[in-house]
Amino acid sequence: MQRMRNSRIQLSEIFTSIEGEGALFGTKTMFVRMAGCHLGCHWCDTTYALPMNSGNDYSINNVKEIIIRYLQPNTYKVNFTGGEPLIQYEAVAELAKFAKEKGLRTYIESSCFDSDKFAKVLPYIDICKIEFKMRDSKAVDPIYYYRLLHNEIRCLKMSIANHKNTYIKIVVTNSTDFVEFKQLIKNIFVNVKTTDLMGFVIQPCYGIDEPTIEKLLNFYDCVYPIYQEVRIIPQLHKVVGAR
């Protein structure tokens, strides 16, 4: 669904904080959080941004002004996140293009549920986090899981083909099936080379069905023989009390 109306955007919030997830954790980041997400990840920690009518309605020009007004010195990147940013892909593309014109690095944090929409945003993005959802995430109805996986793989290949800085993230819980995880890793590296990636992050779920250390090491051991730059990285912003 496309929600941009006459150059408008439904926005949850804009703020600067410490990046707490993924390969670029610890970097000073401006977060542009879009409102609305149709997925059902049971461990989602930004539930306030899920409703399609949450947040506030802005003109694109107004958001551009907000970005410039509140941009702090030494900001490493602008993170377009959600919610699910691809729902408002035209707005994201316009804002990311604006940010790049201002000399800022752009980063997208998406479920990659729609590779066609992803392709429209990609020219204006520098860093792509490709997140693969496991079945236990409950992101989609099981009958649609392979469609989601197909789009995630397409987005991964597209990002690499367009020479973007690309890394993979997979959230795991104590219920995550190891055989499924192993098959996913095989599927990923059939489609891309290890030299194509800037990182591979296994993120343990926090607060809900947290995986044991033993399980985390098993997931790590599944990736390491193929890609040695794999890392287990929790949500560090929760440790330091950042947003």
Summarize the structure.
With 243 residues, the protein is α/β, with parallel strands linked by helices. The protein has helices spanning 60-70, 89-101, 115-121, 145-161, 178-191, 213-223, 236-240; strands at residues 8-18, 28-34, 56-59, 77-81, 106-110, 127-132, 165-172, 199-204, 230-232. The protein has a single domain, classed as Aldolase class I (TIM Barrel).
Percent helix, as a range, is 25-40%
Task: Report how far apart the termini are.
Answer: 28 Å
What is the general shape?
globular
Mean pLDDT: 95
Classified in CATH, the superfamily is Aldolase class I
CATH architecture: Alpha-Beta Barrel
Secondary-structure class: alpha/beta
Low-confidence stretches: 1-5
Number of strands: 9
CATH class: Alpha Beta
Structural overview:
The protein has a nine-stranded mixed sheet. Helices cover 32% and strands 23% of the residues. Strand 4, helix 2 and strand 5 form a beta-alpha-beta unit. By secondary structure, the chain is an alpha/beta fold. The N terminus is likely disordered. The protein has one domain: TIM Barrel (Alpha-Beta Barrel), CATH 3.20.20.70.
